[in-house]
Amino acid sequence: MAQAESVGGDLQLVHLTKMFATFTAVDDLNLVIPKGSFFALLGPSGCGKTTTLRMVAGLEEPTSGQIMIGEKDISFERPYRRPVNTVFQSYALFPHLDIFENVAFGLRRRKVKEVKSQVEAILSLVELDGFARRMPAQLSGGQQQRVALARALINKPEVLLLDEPLGALDLKLRRQMQIELKRIQVEVGITFVHVTHDQEEAMTMADTIAVMNGGKVEQMGSPTELYENPRTTFVANFLGQSNLISGKVFERSDDLGVELYGNRIRVPRSRTSSNSDSLWVGVRPEKINITLADRPIPAANVIPGVVTDASYIGVSTQYLVKTAWSEELMVFEQNLLNSGARPGDSVNLSWDPAHTFALDANQDVDAGVEVPEADS
Amino acid sequence: MRTRRWLPYALLIPGILWLAIFFIAPMFNLGATSLYDPNGSLDTGYRMTFHVANYGDALSQYYPQFLRSFSYAGIATISALIIAYPLAYAIAFKSGRWKNFLLVLVIAPFFTSFLVRTLAWTAILGDNSTFVHFLHTIHLLGPQGRILATPVAVITGLTYNFLPFMTLPLYASLEKIDPRLIEASSDLYASAFTGFRKVTVPLSLPGVVAGTLLTFIPASGDYINATLLGQGARTSMIGNVIDSAFLVRLAYPLAAALSFMLMAAIVGIVIFYIRRAGTEELV
Ligand SMILES: Nc1ncnc2c1ncn2[C@@H]1O[C@H](COP(=O)(O)OP(=O)(O)OP(=O)(O)O)[C@@H](O)[C@H]1O
Ligand SMILES: [Mg+2]
Fold first, then answer.
1. Hey, where are the domains in chain B?
2. Interface contact A90-B180, CB threshold 8 A
3. CA B243 → CA A287, B193, B217, B227, B251, distances in Å?
4. What is the pLDDT of residues A169-212, one digit of tens each?
């Protein structure tokens, strides 16, 4: 069949749009997902992740735009002719077939030979040897998840779509499966498109992450790039936490001089995603040093404040520090460097200019703050 | 708190009493009757002679009606399945907001009596009906040909009367199927038809089994369709024989023996069928 001889290549979404009646679920999406990469689509609930995957799988018809694999336009191919397989969020294992037949389903439909040896090999890849004759209802959630993975992988698709496959697992099993999935992806070299709303999951697994919001891609890049250099307030808040402070540019030279309520700080140009003079200046809580007011200040960008809350959580201590303009900034201090700051103390917050980023002020400062807890 | 172990048993008591009074006792009675001396009568009274030969006599005399009953019921069951499956499928998957309305239509016939509905069919299939005229016009039926008083009429009546018993269990099991399973099959290279064959049909099997049993069992014991639509000895079923043996000829031992054999035959057929269904040999 088609997928056997197709040349393959990058998965491309070109101006992909999906409307349900008048509601735009996916809005002019443009993505290139390199062949063999582990790609994560990350975003809050309802942002259009599942809809995007379903269009790639052929279970939903795009309103406009194209889906290409390599040179081939598959936008209107029937689902069963696409070189794409899906690991469904709910697993969707066939309850009337045993594990062996579930996994063999795709091979049998394509009349592939040597079903037995292939099924055995893939079951051992997902560490389910000996489970072939069990029924799906007799497996644990984690085992069912691996069957769903094996059932899709065995077809050696060009692209494997994973729709929150770990959503139903408890935290420990989830972490274990993340490592497992990553190992398998490296081993088989197939393009994985992994949908999740768990930012930690996306960061630990993916080569490239696209952060989606309201049917659009906010920013795309490696986990480090997204975390270190977010370009929208949504990304800054959705991936980890950020302190965002309103500022005005007072000087443009090799870097930018920005005034934050009277405090002058520097921002590298490469980390500024706006030409505007009004900016949100951002810094991650763990990049900030906290020192008592009478101590030497270790870094160049400085803001004074008063500690309002300190909570010891083992690996770090988390402070809330109130500035002169009544904004509460968050600081995570490793317990190696104990500043001894207590609620009520006057402190200086300081950080390296290289750890500063600046965003256009014309955005909602709280966008993406409500990170959905890993609940599902 | 101590668990009250007797509670479940206490809850069973009303059901057991009901069964004992209305099922087990009559069964004993019937069993005893089937072994009475056949020469007795209501006037002279019956003597218990353990006359097992009642069974042999009944069978050798009426085996054609037995065979006719099971073949009519079998054909009616298959016809009902063929009609009901697409109907139930459409209601379960394609009816949208019409679903409840269509379900009401399926059970609507129950609002009138079985007898009246069957009588209505004598008009539909009668010699002067539009339907029969139409069959004459298109030469599907010869000039003297008729539908009423033929096996076709009886089977049609049986199919019609038991159709809801086929449709509802089918609907129930189809409706339970997770549509994501069908999506998964299409994702795994199954065309719509293959997905139907490999996923929908096997998952609806419990409904097929329940529906065919609920149709076949009452259909094989039915006598109203044969009476009203068959209208003669050529189409009489075992139910007719038992009916007349009990109520017309007052031959109680014969009637009881026939009843017992009908029951045994049905239980036998059902067990055989369920065994086969369990191993999925039915598809
Ligand atoms: N069949 C449909 N008809 C109408 N609206 C739909 C349909 N499917 C999805 N939507 C809407 O499209 C939007 C995107 O849905 P989608 O399932 O893609 O979200 P998601 O990003 O996968 O969210 P989650 O993380 O909760 O799974 C939602 O607002 C949803 O209500
Ligand atoms: Mg989803």
1. 63-282
2. yes
3. 94, 47, 17, 11, 10
4. 788 878 888 898 898 899 888 999 999 988 889 999 999 999 99
